[in-house]
Amino acid sequence: MPLFLTSPLPPTTPNTVSLQPAPNAAPQGNRSTPSRLSAEEVQQMLESRGHSELLKERTGHNLLLTAHRGTGPTSVFGSTFPQRYHPENSLQAIKTGILQGADAIEIDIFKSKDGTVMVTHDDEIWRNAFGADRSGARLPAGETKASYLVGQKTVDELQKIPIGRNGEVTPTLSEVIGLVNDANQTLTAYGKKPIILNIELKDETAVSPMLDLVEQGGRDSQKLAPESIIFCSFKHEALKELKTEAQQRGLSGINIAPGIKTADLFGKENMKEDFSLKDPNAKYQANAMNNLRALVEGNGFQGYDGILWDLRAPIADLAASGKKAIHASTSDFRQYAENRDFSHVLLELSKRAETFFKCDNVDDARKVLLESSLLLAGVGIQMLYKKTPEGGDAFYFYRPDDQQDNSAILKTGAKKAIAYSKLGSE
């Protein structure tokens, strides 16, 4: 454990990010502020991107932060959620992820009754509607569990159902693409890499209308290019169909990372009902890596999309040998500062392969990852300055015997943290 003491000394002023366009930026005439981002928000986005670039420099440019459902799951809190959180998969949550400097934005999609691709994590509307009974036991008058579904409602009907306390509604994929496009035009003008859109396919019937929107990006330089999208899903056959149809349409550069379930790695017999492992020290099934290699390399997919707590050395080595990416996801995990296992796993993964971390809060995750990268790479006594929760100044001193061989973390994996929604803190 680090030694701890407080001091009234002020922190060193951090480097600021210049808002001047890069030398290779687009001409002045193409640098108008997007309609969806104010000048202040553009500045915030660029400064946050500067902080993300510091993390990349520390990790060989292999660790990228993906804003999970925008700024994280809110449905886990029940029928309502803490006021400071935007509803998951809403334009407001996605915008917050963009302003926090996310390298990628993860969203989920279903198709509405009239064929519009909607951005929502669940088909069951009662899991998304603000104030609704999350069990579905009490539905609006005239509705049943068979009728109160995204796939049974038109886009107009869906956008009359609030998903947040401020009247936020379920957005369309077209709206989300428009928001990401606006941000990317500004980022490109300032010499920054565009935001990647990570689309999780929850509805097999949404493949064709989704590719209609992607195809527009392939024809229009002002739209989201196909190579700036990564598709993922636990519906592996649907992903194969997606790739086949994309090829038939002449869409190149399609990136696909199939979702990997805990059962795929450890076997159903080793899982509890809450999807955790019966034995925390359980190892992968004997045929797990061969099955994954056949799925990913056999279909020309981009990488592996797994739950952070399930990732171990064999899958990291598999990704490295095939030059594939790793997507490590969490859900309902915001207490980053209290648990560094997640950052140790990610830092080790990123040494082996390009790693996308799907996190609930980009700012919080980035701070802990930066701190961890500095401490793990340090020699001798190190000092770390932080603000206390009460707003005071604190200095942490780390002694050499606090340091350890971090590569061992991939043998056992990270310890699963207590869900934030279960901590009783609002």
CATH topology (level 3) name:
TIM Barrel
Order of helices and strands: EHEHEEHHEHEHEHHEHEHEHEEH
Strand order of the largest sheet: 2-3-5-6-7-8-9-10
Count of β-strands? 12
Separation of the first and last Cα atoms: 28 Å
| Major β-sheet annotation | 8 strands, parallel, barrel
Rg measurement, Å: 22 Å
Content of β-strand? 15-25%
Average pLDDT over all residues: 84
Shape: globular
Looking at CATH, the homologous superfamily is Phosphatidylinositol (PI) phosphodiesterase
In the predicted model, the low-confidence regions spanning at least 5 consecutive residues are 1-35, 399-403
Q: What's the number of helices?
A: 12
For this structure, what is the CATH class?
Alpha Beta
Share of residues in helices: 25-40%
CATH architecture: Alpha-Beta Barrel
Q: Could you please describe the fold and organization of this structure?
A:
This protein has 426 residues and is an alpha/beta fold. It has one domain: Alpha-Beta Barrel (TIM Barrel), CATH 3.20.20.190. Helix content is 31%, strand content 15%. An 8-stranded parallel beta barrel has the order 2-3-5-6-7-8-9-10, surrounded by 8 helices. Strands 1-12-11 form a 3-stranded antiparallel sheet, with no helix packed on it. Helix 2 (91-99) packs parallel to helix 4 (173-189) and helix 10 (341-352) crosses helix 11. The longest helix has 20 residues, at 39-58. It starts with a strand and ends in a 14-residue tail after the last helix.
Question: What are the defining features of this structure?
Answer:
426 residues, globular
